[in-house]
Amino acid sequence: MNSRGRSLVRVALVNMPFADWNRPSFALGQLSTLVHREFNGRAQAQVCYFNQDMAEYFGTRLYEALSVSHDHVDTGIGDWLFRHIAFPDMPDTTDEYFQRYYRGARWEGFRAEILRAREGLRAFCEELIGRYRLDEADIVGFSSMFAQHVPSMALAALIKERNPETLVVLGGANCEAPMGAVIAEHVPAVDFVFSGPALNTFAEFLQCVLDGEIERADTVPGILSRRNCRDPRFRKAIGTERDIDDFFLPDYDSFFDALEKRPELRRTGTSEPMLFFETSRGCWWGQRSHCTFCGLNGESMAFRAMAPDLAVRQFNWLFEFAPEYTSLFCTDNVMPRNYAREVFPRLDPPPGTSIFYEVKLPLSRQALRSMTDAGVTVVQPGIEALASSTLKLMGKGTTSFQNLQFLKHCDEFGIKPEWNLLIGFPGEDPAVYRKYVEELRDFVHLVPPHGVYMVRFDRFSPYFKRSEEFGLDLTPVDYYALTYPFGADALADLAYFFADQNLAAYTLNAIEWHDQLSRLVAEWRAAWDGEPGGSRRELRLVATDDGGFAVRDSRSGTLQVHPVDAATAGLLRRLSSPAKPDQLAKDWPDGPDDLRRRLDHLREQRFLFTENGRVMSLVLTEADGEAEDFAQEESAAADTRRLLPLLTDAPLRPDTSPSDAPLLTDAPR
Question: How confident is the model at residue 530 (pLDDT cuts 50, 70, 90)?
């Protein structure tokens, strides 16, 4: 070490629970590459996958439940489990926590299992610190998203007990202003907190360490410490962002090595290993109409997409990990609109490749074909409702017709959509729930949602930023006060999830209908999965051996075959896109009475979906896309009255949905 600074800085980057065991940290992988690329010979970095060690400690199935299941994510248990380590001098809140969450006989076994695991957590963390020699590192960095926050603080406290000279830093989505300032002010074990994009600020920080001028980091916007966190200039600041085309591949070597040493995780887990990648930041729809419940992107909504040539290069790099790693997960909030034309046709994915993207509906059949040919077979389409009135409340810019049409196209193209049915939006009409109860059984031949969930109020969302406009009285959800020993003002700045303290009509309506809707969706999932030895339910137009047509309908569990003539078969194809009956009648060759008779028959068989005077067929056909050239639908949230095609390669109305996102980096939440 020289007189001014350090000759070689060892950086340990730790991926804490409850990050998924089966995926590397994109953020820490980027930081590791940054250190080696820009500080070669002066600093070295290693990514430590503590989350995999913890998955072994808890048992893979329990760990997966704690990290993924809504039953547990929404209770904050992942953070609460580490409270006694992070804040050892504070009173125990076990009784209060279990009075609020996991009450009753149903959870008795779970409570006992959690408390047994909690007893040994400190000793296990101490063991891991020694195993990875974290107390010998110059810098230990944590990336925090969701329930990684208190676990990171807990390990920071234990590291500082062993070696107070180790610099502990924390960044990620949980640290964006003003949340990060609370940690800098109230958690002494954390020396520096990175707010917002951190590739630039971490490089500046590391240079300060190398120069032996650590105090200089206090002058960098986006870096918080106890010394500057009360200054509004720094408390509200986020780091500057690197251009998305300043491209460098994440370092996944530590992830591969860690997973290879833990074959039991693959054997006992339900999740397959997958690799993260990034091709855009922000949301191109959010720039125009921020979805009311979406708290993604923080203050960085502006959309930035990677140049197509660089995206192709990144995909080809990812393809090199096949056949061991063929599941690829994109961190983008929304797929770039031009990729179906400019990127996907240039890809040659290895056999078995499955790429995940968040997408904005509507998508043309041409775009879907381009996507699936490139391996994009799992998507999060942001459906979230099957009622256009609710979608309008969200600011989605889509309709229920577009959502159902997409679910039908998923059958045609072999796409797996990941979606939830959300209820409880301020202003949501309870008539929507009655309509769901009447109609959900009609959809059991389509891919079901994972479940029915109450909408959440997240920091950075319009519901949060304009809470008074929506009549909301938002306070942090209950588990924050049971986990963090901070005052009310600090918790208000720290929290990401909020609850409305008003017992408003929209809340009572959603609570009243929630259980019934959940049962219907559970039945839908059971029907979709099929009985043992059986097949999934279907509703499909088929050609018969005698040259005619029939609709095969097994939605009830018993197959019924309904013969239809050529005119009705043509009508079903025409209604692959929605239409108003009176408009159809103008061109119906056999007159309006014949059309009305046919539509009435199709309604009786529950083959049609009706909303706001329009009808659409639920029947799958061999040519669902034939109608799209002449089908016109007015966009649900259009700023003008101009009619738009229902399906288009460049949709006017995209959306955002929750996703995994890289942390402590320039990528989105």
Answer: confident
Backbone angles phi, psi at 135, to 5 degrees: -70, -10
CB neighbour class for 544 (10 Å; exposed up to 12, middle 13-18, buried from 19): exposed
Q: Which of 580, 562, 564, 561 is closest to 572 using CA atoms?
A: 564
Nearest one of 425, 363, 362 to 391, comparing CA atoms: 425
Count how many domains the chain has.
4
Q: Are residues 384 and 439 in the same domain?
A: no
Return the HEC string of 176-240: CCCHHHHHHHHCCCCCEEECCCCHHHHHHHHHHHHHCCHHHHHHCCCEECCCCCCCHHHHCCCCC
Distance separating the N- and C-terminal Cα atoms of the chain = 38
What is the four-CA torsion angle of 124, 660, 306, 275, rounded to 10 degrees?
A: 60
Residue 656 within a domain: no
d(CA 155, CA 50): 10
What pLDDT sits at residue 534? 60
Q: Are residues 501 and 603 in the same domain?
A: no
CATH number at residue 392: 3.20.20.70
69 and 208 within one domain: yes
Rounded mean pLDDT of 316-340?
Answer: 97
Indicate whether 432 pLDDT > 90.
Answer: yes
Residue type, 41: G
Q: Are 45 and 31 in contact (CB under 8 A)?
A: yes
pLDDT tens-place string over residues 122-156: 999 999 999 999 999 999 999 999 999 999 999 99
- Inter-CA distances, 33 with 249, 259, 614, Å: 7, 20, 54
The helices-and-strands tally (H runs, E runs) of the chain is 28, 25
Contacts of 267 (CB under 8 A, 6+ apart): none
State yes or no: cis peptide before 88, omega within 30 of 0. no
Tell me the pTM: 0.90
Lookup: tokens for 262: 């833990």
Rounded CA-CA distance 270/98 in Å is 28
How many CB atoms are located within 10 Å of the residue 91 CB?
8
pLDDT given at position 622: 75
Report the mean per-residue pLDDT for the chain: 91
Q: What are phi and psi of 460, to 5 degrees?
A: 80, -10
**pLDDT 10s digits, 162-177:** 999 999 999 999 999 9
CA distance 201 to 197: 8
Query: For residues 241 and 250, what is the distance between their CA atoms, to the nearest angstrom?
Result: 17
pLDDT digits (tens, 9 = 90+) for 355-392: 999 999 999 999 999 999 999 999 999 999 999 999 99
CB 544 within 8 Å of CB 482: no
Which range of residues forms the domain containing residue 134?
9-235
User: Has residue 641 got a pLDDT over 60?
Assistant: no
> Reduced to 3 states, what is the DSSP secondary structure of residue 590?
coil
pLDDT mean over 607-623: 93
Answer with the one of 370, 403, 419 that is the final residue of a domain: 419
In sequence order, the β-bridge partners of residue 457 are: 498
The CA–CA distances, whole Å, from 474 to 182, 203, 421, 465, 468 equal 19, 37, 23, 10, 9
| DSSP for residue 297 | T
Measured CA to CA, the distance from residue 239 to residue 176 in angstroms comes to 9
- pLDDT given for residue 667 in this prediction: 34
